[in-house]
Write a structure and sequence with these properties.
46% of the residues lie in helices and 11% in strands. It is of the alpha/beta class. It folds into two domains: 55 residues, no CATH class; 362 residues, TIM Barrel. Helix 16 packs across helix 17, helix 18 packs across helix 20 and helix 19 crosses helix 20. The structure holds flavin mononucleotide and 2-acetamido-2-deoxy-beta-D-glucopyranose (4 copies).
């Protein structure tokens, strides 16, 4: 009885009949309920959830709805950790604008097109074919959210073949993340550009040696924003030695410090000094400038270099003129300037200015598969996930991350199909309408 209901549910929601007109009833049911290994697609995740409940009375580890996911993560996390991730600059107007901008656009679907159960979400980016246009945003200090931190997030992105970006403020080092991410998987490295060129060179060389193939230079956080939630409790994890692992492990930093803070005989004072050294060299209030980009190119060679934190069409054009290989439209999740434009509002003019000359990534406020669809329809080539993944991480580490990522992929595939598209080439501005 339950199986029958389940089966009818599937037929109602996917155009399977088109595919398998000659199948027997049993074959059809089996192909949906027990897809042969390798034939599952992202939207199969919903079948898995329904099936698990029917068979084992089991429900997912966390909600499939972002608001409920964040609410349960909040209950699981220490208040300073929750606020560190949830908070933004000042009155948090930019955080709110990032979200509100998604409501200005609505999806206008097309119907009666020959769409099949498996939609092609793949893209080609920097010499890689990726199964979906989704990248882990660089997020520091992930052990705040679960003891497994970056190891868990990088593992799950690796499993799914999606790029993982390691932050300079990581609580786990280059080689440990490379190992958990898995050989051959796409790995990116996000640089907070140190004020000391020797350190910069060393970080980039270690990144290269560990298989990080795209360099993301964050240009909006050379000084820390006015983060009211953290200021009110004086919470700054880096001073306590969390989120400084890249500095602690760095051989050039050891030379400059005159000691190795990770040596078994290192004192507490030495560890703290090394933590401060990394934090200060990577955020001491001196802006990076276009004229110094050659220093990165010299070390990074011809491999891709992207600028993250671009919000103006003029800067995107300059990025192209200065030989960058792409930009990521981002305002750091509203954590840097209060009362700034929404990142999604910046996207359209940047896409126009860039005019296909280089890839344009996007982040800021993505909370659902439908949000991803909107960003892609407005011209983003790929999107980055930030806070949703952290809330997943709070739910038992990799299990929660896997659930959140698979949920977003499933909803994206479902939305692409229900909007009448078979692949991302068909997802364009005609499918969204401004709601003003
Ligand atoms: C807790 C936290 C830590 C972050 N750390 C970094 C970082 O180390 N480097 C960086 O470039 N961006 C960092 N970001 C910004 C993200 O890369 C991304 O731009 C932002 O999270 C997007 O907004 P959203 O999460 O609201 O979608 C961080 C964001 C959060 C929430
Ligand atoms: C479904 O159950 C299996 C077996 O217990 C488990 O491995 C899988 O993670 C579950 N899936 C979901 C979405 O809960
Ligand atoms: C692109 O990838 C191919 C095969 O994966 C490799 O042989 C080639 O060297 C790569 N090119 C660049 C520019 O990285
Ligand atoms: C730790 O050991 C190293 C090498 O054995 C030595 O050079 C260093 O001075 C020691 N550090 C401290 C703080 O004792
Ligand atoms: C944008 O790119 C297209 C195709 O490459 C080109 O034909 C067009 O002239 C460009 N538009 C502008 C404004 O540069």
């Amino acid at each position: 009885m339950r199986t029958t209901e389940l089966f009818l549910g599937f037929v109602a929601s996917s155009p399977i009949i088109l595919l398998v007109a000659a199948q027997s009833a049993q074959e059809l049911i089996n192909s949906v309920l027990n897809p042969p290994p390798g034939s599952e697609h992202y939207s199969s995740y919903s079948s898995e959830i329904y099936y698990n409940h029917t068979l084992y009375n089991q429900t997912p580890i966390a909600s499939t709805n972002y608001d409920r996911l964040e609410a349960s993560a909040k209950l699981l996390l220490p208040a300073p950790a929750y606020d560190y991730a949830a908070g933004g600059a000042g009155l948090e107007k930019t955080v709110a604008s990032n979200r509100a901008a998604f409501d200005k656009w609505q999806i206008a679907p097309r119907v009666m097109r020959p769409v099949q159960p498996r939609r092609d979400l793949s893209i080609t980016l920097f010499n890689r074919t990726l199964p979906a246009p989704i990248v882990m945003a660089p997020v520091g200090v992930q052990t705040l959210f679960h003891s497994t931190g970056e190891r868990a997030t990088s593992k799950v992105f690796g499993e799914l073949g999606l790029p993982y970006t390691l932050s300079t403020a990581s609580s786990t080092g280059f080689s440990d993340v490379a190992a958990s991410n898995g050989a051959g998987n796409p790995r990116w490295y996000q640089l907070y550009w140190p004020s000391d060129d020797d350190l910069t060179r060393s970080y980039l060389e270690t990144a290269k040696a560990n298989g990080y193939e795209v360099l993301v230079v964050t240009v909006d956080t050379w000084d820390l924003g006015w983060r009211t939630r953290d200021l009110d409790r004086g919470f700054f994890p880096f001073i306590e030695g969390v989120g400084v692992q890249i500095g602690l492990e760095d051989p050039v930093a050891h030379e400059k410090l005159g000691f190795n803070p990770l040596a078994s005989n290192a004192t507490m004072e030495q560890k703290q000094m090394a933590a401060l050294y990394h934090t200060i060299t990577t955020s001491r209030g001196i802006s990076p400038v276009w004229e110094n980009l050659w220093k990165l190119r010299e070390v990074w060679g011809d491999s891709p270099i992207l600028l993250k934190g671009v919000q103006s069409a003029e800067d995107a054009k300059l990025a192209s003129q200065w030989g960058l290989n792409g930009v990521i439209v981002s305002n750091h999740g509203g954590r840097q300037i209060d009362g700034a434009i929404a990142s999604l509002d910046a996207l359209t003019s940047i896409v126009e200015a860039v005019n296909g000359s280089m890839p344009v990534g996007f982040d800021g406020g993505i909370r659902s598969g439908a949000d991803i669809f909107k960003a892609l329809a407005l011209g983003a080539d790929f999107v980055q996930l930030g806070r949703p993944i952290l809330w997943g991480l709070a739910h038992e580490g990799e299990k929660g991350v896997r659930h959140v990522l698979k949920s977003l992929l499933a909803e994206l595939e479902i939305t692409v199909g229900l909007a009448g598209c078979s692949d991302l080439g068909q997802v364009n501005k005609d499918l969204v309408t401004a709601n003003i």
